[in-house]
Design goal:
With about 325 residues, the chain is of the alpha/beta class. It has two domains: about 90 residues, Aspartate Aminotransferase, domain 1 (Alpha-Beta Complex); about 230 residues, Type I PLP-dependent aspartate aminotransferase-like (Major domain) (Aspartate Aminotransferase, domain 2, 3-Layer(aba) Sandwich), CATH 3.40.640.10. The chain contains 13 helices and 13 strands. It has a seven-stranded mixed sheet with strand order 2-8-7-6-5-3-4, sandwiched between helices. Helix 1 packs across helix 10, helix 3 packs across helix 9 and helix 11 runs parallel beside helix 13. The protein is globular, with a radius of gyration of 20 Å. The two termini are about 15 Å apart.
Amino acid sequence: MIIDLRSDTLTKPGRAMLDAMYHAEVGDDVFGEDPTVRKLEEMAAAMFGMEAGLFCPSGTMTNQIAVKAHTQPLDEIICDKLCHIYNYETAGWAFHSGVSVRLTDGDRGIMTVDQIERCILPDYDWYPNTRMVCIENTVNKGGGAVYSIDRMKEIGAFARSRGLVYHLDGARIFNALTALDKSPSDISGIFDSISVCLSKGLGTPAGSLLLGSKDFIKKSRKIRKVMGGGMRQSGYLAAAGIYALENNIARLADDHARAKQIEAMLKQCDWVKKVIPVETNIVIFEVEDSARTADILAAKGIKTSPFSPTLVRMVTHLDITDAMVAEMQELL
């Protein structure tokens, strides 16, 4: 038995999702003629109380479109040092948008208003213009740490008071909402834009949604095109997204429960120095040598991701079963 915990992007569509994809009604989305894409965009926007949505190939693209649409060269965005936009998007903020980044040192990636305020620069010729605040919820490198509704609202109110745009990298926002026992409507009105990934915990083969106002999405659509994100009969992928939103959100609680079980197992292992508190589906733990540990676990059939020289990450997802977790108890 191979237990692949490297990422929740590894899932493959099940029979029901494939059936939805096979029977999708499609058109050319670059011409705005794919009815399934339009349905997905409208469905997701309505869930989060946004005016419109844009279907894109990846979460990196939705985040980078948001940065480009909200800023201009010489601007600066504020985010935490652990966030995905800073660590895993190939400095796209510099490449695409000509902006700089100022980093906070949050608690497992969770920023505070005080930290953000200290990053706002005075309007001097030799400084970039502070323009945008970006948070990631959940925080991948923070072990799936979750921003509370109150913290998101607090940062949003502060951002508005200082004339700053507020973007949510919600690649795993449904994991966050599941952990908080909240719904997408509970964050309606907080953000200027939201990125929602469909190919992580929700199990689609590809795709991410960017949500915002109608004017913002109209501008973003043109940016998507120049970034190479205009797809044709993308309704086949959008159908998987619709299926995921209708069927795969409630089951995220199962992933979280299995991650907590793995956390408890790891705490009993004498070769594990520390386990970052588990809130959602991500388990990060400290060892002496992460690469060596990953090799040892792989030899036992457990695939993991070295996350730093001393940190290892495991991620539960819909292809991880109770039987696999039980097997891990014998292998660790």
